[in-house]
Amino acid sequence: MNVLNVDLGERSYPIFIGCSLSQSTSVLAPYIKGGQVLLVSNETIAPLYMEVLKSIINVPVLNTLVLPDGEQYKTLETLNAVFDALLMHRHDRSTTLIALGGGVIGDMTGFAAACYQRGVNFVQIPTTLLAQVDSSVGGKTAVNHPSGKNMIGAFHQPQCVLIDIETLQSLPDREYRAGLAEVIKYGLITDLAFFVWLEEHMALLLARDEDALLYAIERSCYLKAHVVSEDERESGLRAILNLGHTFGHAIETHEGYGEWLHGEAVAAGMCMAADLSQRLAWISKPDQARVVALFVEAGLPTASPDITPEQFLALMAIDKKALGGEVRLVLLERLGKAVVTADYGAANLMATLSAN
């Protein structure tokens, strides 16, 4: 078992990587505060892991809630089901919420924990690759709105993150590949050596080799934890974690939540960001080709669906990084270094949008 730490002062917490859920009683126990737990999962994950997890949680009151599975259910309406369960079972402010599932369950459970009685404890147990390397770490919680993804939410850090790579063996291939998009992102934005390692080891990752997975997950979590420790609430540095996300969120919103998986949309978005970076002469055409080639090898989309430039611009304007009506984008100054900028030129952006 490997342990990383997200250094946020009194809100610091550990990330445990490699644990088996069935053997995690001593790991989990110190982070369950009070005598009440609400365990939240979805219809896909609950039959696989909920009973195992229930067997290692020793509290007087343990309630469970199983939500429908899918990005299309990441809504205020579904969120209200969490509040209904908490109130029906009379959970007080010492309760702990546990999120068992992918990014949707983690985001909604975390947001519920941020809101219930103005904030209660919660624990992340992510079961998808994307959630393990990205959404479970950093305290971002949210639900979607029909006009924009993740526009309603709060920063609320977990007590701990428990990552069991054994859960990835049951993950469908499409969802697994979608998670690789966020792994590739870390190499692109801040760690060229990791990007090169991914180029050399993608075949092992696609085969779900345990050693390769452990390294990729640990390195991704380490890089995200470092960024979050420097900028918890995304006032500066943390925005680089959104490479490709402004384009990707526009794709998800346009197509309808759940039609494109988040990682698929972000993969296409990162290729668009690389295209725009090359038009600015920040990266070379061969480097742009390397970016696209790695996503192709991972089996991920490298271009957007049929969206007009005008539709893209309208959707991109509803983005958390937009300030004063100006859309800021995360682009590549070079491979291994991302920057947030609004200085990309309208003509260059239109050329990228028209090319994809």
Describe the protein.
About 45% of the residues lie in helices and about 20% in strands. The chain has about 350 residues and is α/β, with parallel strands linked by helices. The protein has 2 domains: about 1-170, Rossmann fold, CATH 3.40.50.1970; about 175-355, Up-down Bundle (Dehydroquinate synthase-like, alpha domain). The strands form 4 sheets. Strands 4-3-5-6 form a 4-stranded parallel sheet, sandwiched between helices. It has a 3-stranded mixed sheet with strand order 1-2-9, covered by helices on one side. β10 (about 330-335) and β11 (about 335-340) form a beta hairpin. α6 (about 175-190) runs antiparallel to α7 (about 190-205).
Radius of gyration: 20 Å
Cα shape: globular
Give the helices and strands as they follow along the chain.
EEHEHEHEHEHEEEHHHHHHHEEH
Q: End-to-end span in angstroms?
A: 42 Å
Q: Mind telling me which CATH architecture of the largest domain this is?
A: Up-down Bundle
Poorly predicted tracts of residues: none
Q: How many distinct folded domains?
A: 2
Strand residue content: 15-25%
Structural class: alpha/beta
Say which CATH homologous superfamily of the largest domain is assigned. Dehydroquinate synthase-like - alpha domain
CATH class of the largest domain: Mainly Alpha
Helix content: 40-55%
Count up the helices.
13
**Main sheet properties:** 4 strands, parallel
Number of strand segments: 11
Calculate the mean pLDDT score and round it. 94
CATH fold topology of the largest domain? Dehydroquinate synthase-like, alpha domain
Strand order of the largest sheet: 4-3-5-6
